[in-house]
Amino acid sequence: MLSKSTIVGAVIAVCINAALAGANDYTFEPVKAEFKKGNATVAVRLIHKPSGKPVADAVIIQTRIDMAPEGMAQMDSPLNLQPSTDPGVYSFKTDLPMAGRWLLSIAAKVQGEPETVVGKITYKVNE
Ligand SMILES: [Cu+2]
């Protein structure tokens, strides 16, 4: 039979695991990873990996999209967050004026997760 202290110990272990899981439990995935150059709406889905569920109501605190470094000194575009139509999907209007690889960097706060969740997604932009 399990003693009371064994059960308490098990409960504490579960809580510590939950606390350690942190920001790595979340991932940003592109809804679509390829665009034609010009105006684009880039959308990302935020997923809670252990459950596989999309995470709605995250607060996007930082975004940046720029051309992947090779050869490009500084080429970035503003991103404008759009109202959400699909829970867990975060969409941004932007302009990708040049063919090549563009890198989206994104940071978000998720309810109940003290760490900031960050992601990097590469997009292929075609002529
Ligand atoms: Cu460029």
The CATH architecture designation is Sandwich
What's the CATH topology label? Immunoglobulin-like
The biggest sheet, with number of strands, parallel, antiparallel or mixed sense and barrel status, is: 5 strands, antiparallel
Low-confidence stretches: none
Rg, nearest Å = 19 Å
- Please report the distance between the alpha carbons of the first and last residues: 69 Å
Give the SSE order as H and E letters.
HEEEEEEEEEE
Bound molecule kinds, no repeats: copper (II) ion
The CATH superfamily label reads Immunoglobulins
SS content category: mainly beta
Our count of domains comes out at 1
Shape: elongated
Strand segment count: 10
**Roughly how much helix do the residues carry, as a percent range?**
10-25%
Query: What is the averaged pLDDT score?
Result: 88
Number of helices: 1
Beta strand %: over 45%
Q: Please write the CATH class name.
A: Mainly Beta
Describe the protein.
With 127 residues, the chain is mainly beta. The protein has one helix and ten strands, in the order H-E-E-E-E-E-E-E-E-E-E. The chain has one domain: Immunoglobulin-like, CATH 2.60.40.10. The longest helix is centred in the first third of the chain and has 18 residues, at 4-21. The strands form two sheets. Strands 1, 3, 4, 7 and 8 form a five-stranded antiparallel β-sheet that branches. Strands 2-10-9-5-6 form a five-stranded mixed β-sheet, with no helix packed on it. It is elongated. Residues 67, 72, 75, 98, 100 line the site of copper (II) ion.
